Amino acid sequence: MGKKAQKTPEQKSYQQLEQQHETKRPVLKNCLRAFWVGGLFCIVGQAISLFYIYFFNFTEQTSGNPTVATMVFIAMLLTGFGVYDRIGQYAGAGSAVPVTGFGNAVISASIEHRTEGFVLGVGGNMFKLAGSVLLFGVFSAFVIALIKTILIRWGVI
Amino acid sequence: MLPMFFWAFVVGGLICVAGQICFDIFKLTPGHTLSLFVVIGAVLDGLGLYEPLADFAGAGATIPITSFGNSLVHGAMQEAEQHGLVGVLTGMFEVTSSGISAAIVFGFIGALLFKPKG
Hints:
The complex is a heterodimer. By secondary structure, chain A is mainly α.
């Protein structure tokens, strides 16, 4: 997406042509698919967290941690065997938004770049896709926690 | 126990639908959407809204990527209560460490085990 003001008439007419031929995205169908696949991931996560609560003495608050780790492990297997790509094509955001999508982003990047060697390939590219999530997550959390701490110190909240 | 599964399904599914709407209607890339979701999760936890949702929906709130932002803020706030402003930095990954370390460890194992296709 460039600067719209600098487009020549030819470019504008081409853009109109492009818009005419653009396939309409089946939004409703995509949303339904994302809903049930995403929901299914969460049900699996719920089952895993109950497993940790009953057998490993985690509480409801702390069971999230091992659950996320297990989900990432599942994502590794699914990504490695090429199943996750298929799920992604079918479910769109339903496979990207759960934490398995984050796992898939890290793992698929590291598998993809292994031919460039383990140090520069896998090590250097591991967070190529997931890095933005880390950056914005950490930075926003930093700002929010900072503001909240200062407000608590001042006795505002 | 059964209502917990039901709400996990519904809430988790709805968060994914919100993601799909970002993809299809606002034409955001997955990278932009996920970054946006993490920030939303962090903001919600800053306002104290994420914990009630997690109590209500269980894994429906902890499995989507929004929980990543939530637990980053959570770790930072936990440590900040004990050590003040320095704690914001030292406690950042306290709660999220499992997700990140699992992704790194399993990513490397995955690269060792599997060969790229195509």
